[in-house]
Amino acid sequence: MSMAKSMSLLWGTGSPPCWRVMIALEEKKLQGYKRKPLSFEKGEHKSQEVLEINPRGQLPAFKHGNNILNESCAACLYLENQFKCQGNKLIPDNPAEQALMYQRMMEGLAFTDKLNSVIYYEWVVPEEERHDSAVKRNRTDLTTELKLWEDYLQKVAAGSYLAGAFPLADVIIFPNIAYAFRFGLSVGRYPKLAKYYSLLKDRPSIKASWPPHWLASPQGFDILKDL
Amino acid sequence: MSMAKSMSLLWGTGSPPCWRVMIALEEKKLQGYKRKPLSFEKGEHKSQEVLEINPRGQLPAFKHGNNILNESCAACLYLENQFKCQGNKLIPDNPAEQALMYQRMMEGLAFTDKLNSVIYYEWVVPEEERHDSAVKRNRTDLTTELKLWEDYLQKVAAGSYLAGAFPLADVIIFPNIAYAFRFGLSVGRYPKLAKYYSLLKDRPSIKASWPPHWLASPQGFDILKDL
Q1: Chain B nearest CA to A70, separation (Å)
Q2: Which intervals hold domain GST C-terminal (chains A, B) (predicted)?
Q3: Residues forming beta bridges with residue B64, ordered by sequence position
Q4: A164 pLDDT band (50/70/90 cuts)?
Q5: CB proximity list for B136: less than 8 A, separation 6 or greater
Q6: Domain range holding B142?
Q7: A64, B105: Cβ pair inside 8 Å?
């Protein structure tokens, strides 16, 4: 527990990259770290406090002593490697499982990009640059991506997680999938994703790090309902 | 050397993700793997041969036995972990070096995205959706990104590599930087990037994997010359 005292996290509620780091910290039994929620809406991710740790002005901004890890995959890899014998083992030794884990983990970033392209289109693209054709293409690309993951889950043994017993791939992927359902993804059309979601949502590391504003307003959105 | 015989790589010349995997294979002394160059221009990355390995229809498509690793960072992490005692050690043990290595490695993907947004704008964005304001913003974002890396290199000890003695971060980052200079980046305005480039370009693993079509036509482009 004492190691966690030298850790600090600046984070924003509901951000998949922040959530990943929080899940990894729970999995490695590193509770008790300092953390401070910041508001994206108020632009606090561009504050001096963040920029000193993360010059990109993004959250998370994570420190372990003097070591800085702002990219969520980097932070997760580091935590697993530095705390191998503490909490749950997140990188499998078996070569086939390890390959699948790394592959899915990194594909998770493409998934996040495609989600963001749809969900944050109007937030990111200036009004005069918006096109219905781009919106439509982004939605098609996200549908293709979702079907890919539905297919990946179809291929793994029933009831198991993405690449074994909750390794790093799930830490990276779960927030994407929770996000997709929060934004209205159809349980009927994506039954494997829905099953994965319901299998993992009550896992202690995930429950402990659940986005507070989702608890405060459980009602989500319907942006993705027709995908 | 025998392990390399069970490896195969479908790749495209000049693609940074493909190049990364090839550098990592050289660093781990895994020469002798099967490889087949495919043409992006002819759309061969969307061929059945690729789709069977990489359903995203992207290169690289890499196999080690039955293990599939298409995401470049995933392939590099896997190769280092599976061949720890062979060739060069790519992940440092020292916690501070390891943190910096993972952080820069993952930031390298943001660098690639920003390069692609400028270099491939017309290739990716349909004509009726193009905007001068978007082109300008993408160029500004890339300039900010390049200055960030110039600054990172300023902060490391003179003459050293990004995060130590050629660990994984350099494997991921070098192709980005080579790409930037290939597309006309100013040596004068980015002296640290230029120094990094010239320090690494003759490293055996990089020389052995240098994009063949760059050798065939050493003249680059000037898309980035004014950044």
Answers
A1: 7
A2: 94-219
A3: B7, B67
A4: low
A5: none
A6: 95-216
A7: no
Show Cβ contacts of residue A13 under 8 Å, excluding neighbours closer than 6 positions. A37, A211, A212, A213, A214
* Among A95, A106, A76, residue whose Cα is nearest residue B79: A95
Q: How far apart are CA A176 and CA A198, in angstroms?
A: 14
Chain A residues with CB under 8 Å of a chain B CB are 55-56, 64, 66-71, 73-75, 77-78, 81-82, 91, 95-96, 98-100, 102-103, 105-107, 109-110, 126, 128-129, 131, 133-134, 148, 151
Say if residue A134 is in the same domain as residue A199: yes
A139 C-beta neighbours (distance < 10 Å), count = 18
Give the end of a domain, one of A82, A105, A139.
Answer: A82
Task: Give the total number of structural domains in chain A.
Answer: 2
Cα angle A33-A34-A35, degrees, rounded to a multiple of 5? 115
Indicate the range of A97-101, A173-177, B106-110, B124-128 predicted with least confidence.
A97-101
The interface pTM score, or ipTM, of the predicted complex is: 0.95
Pairing of β B34-37 and β B67-68? unpaired
Buried b (16+ CB within 10 A) or exposed e, A80-104: bbbbeeebebbbbeeeebbbbbbbb
B204 and B100, same structural domain? yes
Supply the CATH number for residue A40's domain: 3.40.30.10
Say what the pLDDT of residue A106 is: 97
Asked whether the beta carbons of residue B99 and residue A129 sit closer than 8 angstroms, the reply is no
* Contact: B129, A134; criterion CB under 8 Å: yes
Q: Same domain, yes or no, for B132 and B180?
A: yes
For residues A87-107, give the mean pLDDT.
93
Contact B126 A133 (CB under 8 A): yes
pLDDT for position B162: 62
Distance of alpha carbon B177 from alpha carbon B172, whole angstroms: 10
DSSP H or E stretch at residue B82: helix B72-82
Looking at the structure, tell me whether residues A185 and A135 fall in a common domain: yes
